[in-house]
Amino acid sequence: MVSGRECTRSTIESSMGYITQPWPITSLCAFGLCLFPFVYFLSYAPMVLVCEGPDIFGDPYDMFYLERVEIPGYRSVDWLIDNTPLRKPLFVWADFWGVGNYFELEHWDRTH
Q1: Are residues 11 and 53 in the same domain?
Q2: How many domains does the chain have?
Q3: Per-residue pLDDT for 92 more than 90?
Q4: Distance (Å, whole) CA 52 – CA 66
Q5: Residue range(s) defining the domain that contains residue 1
């Protein structure tokens, strides 16, 4: 019981220590900035599948006979694959999406 004050939901919640304010915009922006790199790196394999992957009704290995199109927005991920230990996790992620062989072929082409 709150004595001497009006007993409303907000006074009860504030006296119990609950935070009733929404997230400030700076917290949302910081969360978005922290989440962006993960979404960016993990979107590379699905993007390759969409841009160069197999035809839905065709042969799943057609992608190796197509002319390869470079995706300029993901050059930094290519650099990470070529120069850091993130190669193995990104190859596993690409295998999950069915484009692991494409990633390995592209990596070999860039490094040889």
Answers
A1: no
A2: 2
A3: yes
A4: 8
A5: 1-35
- How wide is the angle at C-alpha 56 spanned by C-alphas 89 and 87, nearest 5°? 10
Same domain for 95 and 56: yes
* C-alpha 60, offset from chain centre: 25
- Kindly state whether residues 31 and 82 are assigned to the same domain: no
pTM of the model: 0.62
Angle at 74 between CA 27 and CA 29, to 5 degrees: 5
> Does residue 59 share a domain with residue 5?
no
Between CA 111 and CA 2 the distance in angstroms is 71
Mean pLDDT lowest among 19-23, 38-42, 84-88: 19-23
pLDDT digits (tens, 9 = 90+) for 36-73: 888 898 898 888 888 775 554 445 555 555 456 678 88
Query: What pLDDT shows up at residue 21?
Result: 59
Residue pair 45/103 in contact by the 8 Å Cβ criterion: yes
Q: For residue 11, what pLDDT is reported?
A: 53
For residues 28 and 80, state if they share a domain: no
User: Are 49 and 98 members of one domain?
Assistant: yes
Overall size of the chain counted in residues = 112
